[in-house]
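Morning F.,

Quick status update on the modeling queue. The single chain you submitted on Monday has been processed. Sequence for confirmation:
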Amino acid sequence: MVSAQVEFRGVRDECVLAAMRKIPRHLFVPARQRIHAYRDEPLSIGEGQTISQPYIVAYMTEALALKSTDRVLEIGTGSGYQTAVLAEIVREVNTVEVLERLSRKAQALLHELGYGNISFHIGDGNSGWPNHHPYDAVLVTAAPEKIPPALQHQLKPEGRLIAPVGVLHQELVLVRREGDRFISKSLLPVRFVPLVKIH
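Structure tokens below.
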């Protein structure tokens, strides 16, 4: 999977590649989907949510230019696969999931796999996790109509945020904080499930 779908398409960050070689992706998908776990496609994980295709997981992670000392906020724990990739690379992952059943399942699996550098929160990802900010990076795994201001303001100076943005037409957007300014760059067209918002 890593050589044919990720390296072949241009991902070069050795930490990202090593993490994805190590993590057993099939454990993060429902049993009926495991035969497809290593294909380069998103898969349903229930609750109307998906696990992103391997290439997109790698691309988004590499785009954040993560360091081993970073503290990262993930919006959308989902299956926990992206969470595990981050946890292999950085010092601390804080992950938020609005759907309690998905969060509990991911927590159990990630604990079983031995990850001790992940904190979990069940709540509205649009609000981020202000109790633990600021963050070196924020990674959003579902698409808001526009980037929630709370997520940008929880970044450290020079912090980076990556998110799929849009409704019918979505783009992957990379944001860098420079003081009180946020510089955005569109990277590529994508298709993600919408970011759930609690009203």
